[in-house]
Amino acid sequence: MSPVEFQQVFHFEKEGNRMSSTKRYMKFVKPYTWQIVFTVVIGIVKFAIPLFIPLLIKIVIDDIISVDTLTDAEKTRQLFYWLGGTALIFFIVRPPIEYYRQYYAQLVSNKILYDIRQELYGHLQRLSLRFYSNTRVGEVISRVINDVEQTKNFVMIGLMNLWLDLGTIINAVAIMLTMDIPLTLVTLLAFPFYAVSVKYFFGRLRDLIRERSQALAGVQSYLHERVQGMSIIKSFTLEKHEQQIFDKANGEFLEKAIDHTKWNAKAFAVVNTITDVAPLLVIAYAGYQVINGNLSVGTMVAFIAYIERLYNPLRRLVNSSTTLTQAYASMDRVFELMDEKYDVKDEPHAKEIPTVKGKLQFDGVSFRYEEENNLVLNNMNFTVEPGQTAAFVGMSGGGKSTIISMIPRFYDATSGAVKIDDMDIKDVKIKSLRENIGIVLQDNILFSDSVKENILMGRPDATENEVIEAAKAANAHDFIVSLPEGYDTRVGERGVKLSGGQKQRVAIARVFLKNPPILVLDEATSALDLESESLIQDSLERLAHNRTTIIVAHRLSTITHANQIFVIDHGELKEQGTHNELMESKGIYYNLFQVQQLDMD
């Protein structure tokens, strides 16, 4: 069975116009074609060298030991000539060949994995927030790390080892044919049975391995979420409850693993039986021929030795088939992730946004997160002039956060248009749009780098002095210099080593560094103590100066200065005006403000 035929056992059919995973994977392999060819060639040489051993056995038995015309001294001399020459090949020629085969095999396969992960990460960054809201983080990580790593076996086995084993088989058969044709044919009798059994058993393995991989990704996703939320588990004493849930997820993986193991065991039992029985046929036939004087003892011994050289590659193919099937299943999962569609992407005619003045307009905007869901925003119309501060208030779930998510095109409107300076933001390149918008959230995410590196995310090419000035403007410099390593202090995952107020000030500092014309504040002070809120409110007012500022506020006392206040209720704009105007109208805003004042009293 050739590598091509062997791979066809596990071939993925086209799904519509979608290319098979193998063909798509070969696009990543193509740049390294000649390195793979070189690796295969030196590998064939490496495996061909040991094939001389059975032939050497025949020469020693038939042409040296069994020759009565030679003296013992001549026999000894010829024996050492043959063994000495063979030893030189094994000690001088074979080691560098083995080194370069291993080196290039690993080098090429790791470069291919590097290229795939590079493309996957770029793809993940272009996917919209809708994808991440519907997909578990652990599932994504499993595909980028585990599944991509598994595809390495396709290169190592499918593109290298299969050809090496095929080359070994062809070379062994060629040598055997020169020695005795009928005995060679007897040796090959088991091949058709081997091919049929491999095709039957290993065709099913792909589905079983895919199910096993999916179950393993489920366990990984569960662990990722629970490790992040361990404080919740402990505070609610949920350890026993969570253990039961984990037992269920882990049990599902065990079930899939056992199904895979059962089928794999059946396959190995049948295929290895065939490869183990084949030598018995050869020994029986060769022994009969030697007894009847039709075959030399040396030839019989050499053939028995060649059987191992011939069937060992076949056994390796069986062992490799499980690994190769896993690689194919992992390819499927990798390309399934690559096929995720972009909900938000640049239109073909999109262009760079010119200098932004800061006018923001929602023109008949309606929005729903999924087609089957109700509208979250319904016919939203408002305008914020350049340099104005506009605040959005209302009950939770009314659509305020959805509005601010649409300004930087985290989501696209279902209908209507979001405009900046009278330009539909869909006509603008996404990168160009987002470079002009700074966002401060209630729960800002910091990465587990240093304080300085987190601030530099606002503008990676900024100087150290610019970073310090931004931190001072955000009232963050004083606490930063008091940290153990100052600006080089690592903040831990999600900024866990900093307090809530400190995290907010670092987040504000990076927006100061970015210096965008449009500022979006999503309840940036609602979860802070009074001292932190005072510091942050001061830095936010400084940040909002001369910028178009959009504020989502829970605490109405913090937005009384806004030029416009929009009251959002159940996805609709119910009221708008200044604080004084809305208080005079005594509508929804008035009632909310009165309730909050009573709560404060």
If you had to describe this structure to a student in words, what would you say it looks like?
With 601 residues, the protein is α/β, with parallel strands linked by helices. 63% of the residues lie in helices and 9% in strands. The chain has helices at residues 3-8, 21-29, 33-48, 52-65, 72-126, 129-134, 137-150, 152-179, 181-187, 191-228, 230-235, 239-291, 297-338, 400-406, 430-434, 451-455, 464-473, 477-481, 500-514, 530-544, 579-585, 588-600; strands spanning 360-367, 377-384, 389-393, 415-420, 423-424, 437-440, 518-522, 548-552, 564-569, 572-577. The strands form two sheets. The chain has a six-stranded mixed beta sheet, with helices on both faces. A hairpin with a 2-residue loop joins strand 9 (564-569) and strand 10 (572-577). The longest helix is centred in the N-terminal third of the chain and has 55 residues, at 72-126. The chain is elongated. It starts with a helix and ends with a helix. The relative contact order is 0.08. Mean pLDDT is 80; it is low at 1-19.
Q: How is the biggest beta sheet arranged?
A: 6 strands, mixed
Global shape: elongated
Give the structural class. Answer: alpha/beta
Please give the order of strands in the largest beta sheet: 6-7-8-3-9-10
Number of strands: 10
Task: Report strand %.
Answer: 5-15%
Question: Helix proportion of residues, in percent?
Answer: 55-70%
Taking all Cα atoms into account, the compactness measure Rg is 36 Å
Number of helices: 22
Mean pLDDT: 80
Ends apart, CA distance between termini = 85 Å
- Low-pLDDT ranges: 1-19
